[in-house]
Amino acid sequence: MSDILISCAVTGSIHTPSMSPHLPVTPDAIAEQAIAAAHAGAAILHLHARDPDTGHPSADPAHFMAFLPRIRAECDAVLNLSTGGSAIMALDERLAGPLAAAPEMASLNMGSMNFALYPMLGRGTEFKHDWEEPFLRGSDDLVFKNTPRDIAGILHALGEEHGARFEFECYDVGHLYMLAHFRDRRLVRAPIFIQFVMGVLGGIAADPAHLVHLKETADKLFGNDYLFSVLAAGRQQMPMAAMSAGMGGHVRVGLEDNLYIEKGVLARSNAEQVAKLRGIVEALGRRVATPADARRMLGLKGAAAVGF
Ligand code: KMH
Ligand code: ZN
Fold it and tell me: Which of 32, 110, 196, 262 is the Cys-Cys partner for 175 at CB 3.0 to 4.6 Å?
């Protein structure tokens, strides 16, 4: 089996600051946790930005630039910027940071969907910021918009124009057919890096049978032209990552996707999740890929070609 790519999604835009004191929201905290996650074994860092004062999701170039140069200076990991931002953002807003940064990698969400965060209100969190509760509650009437025109625009603006390669976020089986459609239009080329995103309410559930079906479908559509990774939101994070590692896939952890290290215990950092996952995948006999391996495996442009 190939070396295994560990991605770490450091802060995201799903969890709000009051849900965990360990969720990094300031540029220093994002940078420190990203660097520590890289040193723990993450070859790829998936990065969102936040308003440093309120922790509110942001794709403002200034908020990204407040941490990107420091991460780049202190580790060799591949920096993968989110084009998903938050479902409350318009597409132009979502793209502002990634276009300014011209990263080696960016996420690309392969379909419009519901992205229901409101069930997390049931945790009884005491919110420190007045935006948090309405942000979560409002997700019951929100479409995370990713039309074929949006997807084509991102492939052009970030891919063709800036040389970024993509983490294709596929939340359901149909998203794989949309990805194949863009491959058929010659707007996507091998090696195709697919992230099976599981356990988001609005996408496919984090069920082992679904992972097998996703992989079988991807095998049929992409043959040897793709690599798959798995992220499962919430408590299925580690079990599904372990399953992916056993199937020859790659893995993603991080506080964007899950705030816990075990049932009822908040992870103290992203690096803690990376270290735990590293132990699991090495016990399964997989060798953890380095950033240099990742650049070779994914055909990346190199850290010197970024805009920060
Ligand atoms: N935050 C979610 C709305 C991505 O980074 O592109 C989507 C997301 C995926 O986080
Ligand atoms: Zn993300």
Answer: 110
Q: What is the mean pLDDT of the chain?
A: 98
Give tens-digit pLDDT for 26-74: 999 999 999 999 999 999 999 999 999 999 999 999 999 999 999 999 9
**What does the pLDDT look like over 199-244, one tens digit per residue?**
999 999 999 999 999 999 999 999 999 999 999 999 999 999 999 9
Decide: helix, strand or coil at residue 221.
helix
Question: Shortest CA distance to 271 belongs to which of 24, 13, 4?
Answer: 24
Residue 169 beta carbon below 6 angstroms from any ligand 1 atom: yes
H or E stretch at 137:
helix 132-137
Which stretches of 3-58 are DSSP H helices? 27-40
Query: Tens digit of pLDDT for each residue in 67-117?
Result: 999 999 999 999 999 999 999 999 999 999 999 999 999 999 999 999 999
Which residues contact residue 219 at a Cβ distance below 8 angstroms, ignoring those fewer than 6 apart? none
Please tell me the distance between residue 5's alpha carbon and the centre of ligand 1 in angstroms. Answer: 19
Taking the centre of ligand 2 as the mean of its atom positions, its distance from the CA of residue 91, in whole angstroms, is 14
CA of 220 to the centre of ligand 1 (A): 26
Which residue minimizes the CA distance to atom 8 of ligand 1? 84
Q: How many CB atoms within 10 Å of residue 92?
A: 10
162 φ/ψ angles, rounded to the nearest 5 degrees: -120, 0
Report the C-alpha gap between 80 and 107 in whole angstroms: 7
